[in-house]
Amino acid sequence: MVAHAEIRVVHRGGSKINFREPVITNDSRFLLCASGESVKVYSSSSEECVHDLQGHTDLVSGIARNPSNHLQVYSCSADGTVRLWDFTDGILIKTFIIGYPIYSIYVSEKHGGVVFVVVPMANDKSSELFQLVAVHLPRSGDQEVEARELSAVLCDVSPSPGAASFGREGEYVAAAKGLQLEVFFFKKQKPYRFFLKPGIKKGSKNAFTCVSCHPKEDCIATGHADGKIRLWRNFNQKKEYTYSTLHWHHGAVNTLQFTPEGTNLLSGGIESVLVQWRYTQENQKDFLPRLGAAITHIAVSPDGSLFCTSHSDNKITIIQSCVKVSAIIQGLVKSEGVRTDLMIDPRSKALVLNGKPGHLQFYSLHRDKQLYNLDIVQQEYINEEGLDQFEVVKAAFDAHGDWLATVEERRQKGSELEINLKLWAYDEQTQSFVLNTTVTAPHEDQITAMCFSPSPETTMLVTISFDGHFKAWLLADHSDTKEGASWSCDFVGGYHLLKPGCCCFSADGSLLAVGFQEVVTVWSPSSWELLTTLSQPPGAIRDLCFGRLSCSKYLLGTSTKNQLCCWNILTCSLEWSTPMDVSLLQADPLSENIAAFCSQSGCSDLFVFKPGEPRPLYSQRALCTGKVQHAIFAPRDQMLESCEEHAQWLNRSQLYFLTQHMDLMTFSTKTEEDRLLASSKRLMVDNSVAVTPFYLLLGKHRLQQQQQQQEALTNPMAERIQLPQGSIAIKELLYTPAHVLPSASFLCSMFVRSLLISSSSAREEKEPVEEEMESEEEDSEGEAELRDARQDLEGSAAWGPGEELGTPALTKAQERELRRVKHFDHSWLSSLLEC
Fold it and tell me: Does residue 831 lie in a domain region?
């Protein structure tokens, strides 16, 4: 938890969708996968995210179908809970509190009301010993239930979900770890253990990597680190077991999966090839190659018509019966390191960073979806270890998103460093960036930083390098069409042969600060005059950052001697400094706030402050383990209205940062979580109304209209002309994804009937309408009589000394009632009196 209870550090946007094996529903319409602290429900045909099941407070570590209800799934998390969901409506049904961190979950049709989970043997996340336990789920009407009845099945198992599997419809469970395979029979309540030798032959690695049990027969398939697959039989007798070997993979077998009928065995590894083995004819196999990245998980639909593979580049591929790829769900690609840093595209507001080799990826944080990849290197990537290839190491956008600058480099053994500087112009027709200028060898050494000038008067790029110089590149033509526009070097600067390490423009582009080792130099981009140099305590300058808005007169810098300094540019003096090991300094472009990530005792701390104020706005100790090297402020689509002082720094922008484990994290406030909960679709069905698909869409809007009408009747002063309210319902109907809606022919008849007036209500409304038409000529007389009666009442109230002043006037509703009573036929009363 964080220092303030209303702010949490969460996974939101860009989470790993390949963290655990995905689950395909019984009808093959939806695909469910763990994504950070939530479960995402994707359409297998349109690739769109239908629901985002949120409720867990830690990483979701597994998903399993409910055997007793094909519309429900279980999910487990490191927060110690198992949750039951209705994935078609996106509703949380029940929460089972286990009390231990859960790393994987399994279900079996023969074990009703029981789920099997892997938990640490000690109630601690740092424990290295795990056990497979059976959890008996209590039947209760409460939404949160404690499930404390646990029974151990296997001890010392692997926390990986692929290391255990149930076989023969739940009669036994097999688990592999290291060089040991353990099989537990539930009827006998007895385990059998089998061991393999470490491997004496050259290149032999017998360690188990994954397990899959045959659904119908007594057969266990195991994958190994040397690429072999072993099929184990007769394992119910410890001494007479046998196994056969299959071998095609040249690397470790990452995953295995039998088809529902057991006719085929699927395997995948680093080769990016899905291999389908015939169970009865082991020599025959089919291949689906070139899937793009190493396969980490394989899932099969219950009917066997749909396959699904997870890949190391955070991608899920949907395959139709091992024949062709039908859909690809691409998450945020997280390579070994983000060398370009995190950026925000000014046009699409997308997160931009390294993607697959030689590319930049544009990822929408709000939609949690990759928009597109931009090929920077424009060369075929060869996946071979030890081969030096061009890599994208730097990138920067101008203020309006019209230009993109990239730097790619390649260092070969025994040769000089190859560097290319490329400038890309945004094309309105293709809605992408097009290469405009390529500069070969822009510097003699590695480029360490670059940035665009935010000034609207000129389009300028500044690059700095270890060769001791910084260069200013200027756009030669400022025409709107960019035809014939080219870039050229406008200025080359340096300072006493020192190596520059960082640079930064002021908010208006009138100043350029360049850090030359222990000296900060300030330049005027209009004349390239060195304005001043700033001194600071010993240590090389690591990062520079100008203040924004009202704090634009301040320049902040960090040094290798663990100092955070703040200079006043107007007085050219040191304003303040504090001892702090700042690993990253990030300014919010929409406010005066600056975020400083500090490293201490192997963890990262966060301080959010304004340069002109001595007290930080927000602080968080032990934010995550390791150093935070990359962070970015992303503008919000809708501004938050947080009244708490410690949360106001998140109103305009949202801070994202990458941990050392390449997890994209952000901060969530209670106000934001309440807004997400209110905007999520919850089905509120009235029991007295027939439930139809059309009512589920429009019923809540009609309920709001009925409430407004009741308020108008009870409060006559609230009567006013109402605008049409059907637009909200129609908009939701039109904006709902087409694959979620029933067919148009099915909705048409209900839609037409909903617009018609029932015959009973029509008769009730017809009588007062006819009375008003017949008495149209008498209305004026009635109104005149009412006015006379009012005057008489007012006169008597004014002249009568014993009467109260200010008799209340009649409302419009009362006037209509009087007119209706006046026109009643009372002739029947006279006939009674005569009798």
Answer: no
